[in-house]
Amino acid sequence: MSGLLLRDALVLDVASGEYAEGDLRCEDGRVVEAGPRLSAPDDTRVIDVAGARVVPGLIDAHVHVTASSADLGSLRSMSPSYVAAHSARIMSEMLDRGFTTVRDASGADFGLADAQAEGLIRGPRLLFCGKGLSQTGGHADFRGRGEHLLDDHPCCAGVGRVVDGVDAIRAAARDELRKGAHHIKLMASGGVASPTDRIDSTQYSMDELRAAVEEATAANRYVAAHAYTARAVNRALEAGVRSIEHGNLIDDTSVELFLRHDAYLVPTLVTYWALKEEGLAFGLPAASWRKVDEVLEAGLVALERAARGGVRLAYGTDLLGGMHRHQNHEFRLRAEVQRPIDVLRAATVGAAELVGMAGELGTLAVGAHADLLVLDGDPLADIGVLADPARLRHVVQAGRVVTG
């Protein structure tokens, strides 16, 4: 693999929020040197960026790369090869938007992750959980009220598996970990896309939640929990989950529990904005669309509450179907209540810490993966630079220019 040298760059240290002027050299997929007037081997590709800002590649910590439709229940009846073809397209477009790593929050499996790692498909580095775990009638049980047969074969496409009871939870978690899951996903409350539950419900008993956490911890992995209300969030945090997905209706007690358990919040504001505007057009059932209002306005309030309280944050989007194209709009929404540097930290160092890859991702320090963006403008002065993929001059992944 030939190297890459960026000359005359303003390289952002996201942790400090400061730019350093100089060159950046990458070799074998890693950052190997930074400083003024660097030299490099003859086969190194040299790009003079003429003083452009350079930031780490972005990390989206809540995606569904298999979600070609907002009707998540329909994925179960699709051919896995058809779903994979859609996923390859979705992942390629994510890379073009500057996301060099994503954490899938249910649906993707080792096949997609291996295909990306081997260069068979183009896209972000993929951290997957396999299928999310749901109780009967929970957020990943997509049967209608009159539908009784549960076809939950592990080889079928879909974002979840229905399991009830401590022993079944342990077996399902072990099975996903056997297949290489980077984390376990639990449905700990009702949701928008599921047909028979209420958003304000809690799901799984405390014993069931703890069983999943115990299995993940035993494998040196962690649990991410879908939860909206403070009641559901607080139960999940008490059970030991590492990240809360969404959390639109948290309270002050939630903030205290996040801090006590050193847990992360992954807000996904853009998906509610997109679902309200376009959800019906992209397959969201009408009954689910009517649920959106319950969480839409609360998301920014929850983010502001968490940020003010010092909760660890990661960037997430949770977009579905044709709405994936709004992935960068999350930057604009969060900037309504946060400074641009803090939003960028959530999409770099914060997300890297969440997934256990601090120092490897989300930074341009020597030794890190050479994932980076060359920008047309300063994102710390104008968050629109990150919100608009047209402002990306180059996307570099593992030391290779993949866009621009």
Automatic annotation (TrEMBL):
State one Pfam family annotation: Amidohydro_1
Which Gene Ontology molecular-function terms are recorded?
hydrolase activity, acting on carbon-nitrogen (but not peptide) bonds
Keyword terms of this UniProt record = Hydrolase
**Start and end of every Amidohydrolase-related domain?**
54-402
InterPro entries according to UniProt: Amidohydro-rel (IPR006680), Metal-dep_hydrolase_composite (IPR011059), Metal_Hydrolase (IPR032466), Metallo-dep_Hydrolase (IPR051781), OTAase-like (IPR057744)
This protein's name = Amidohydrolase family protein
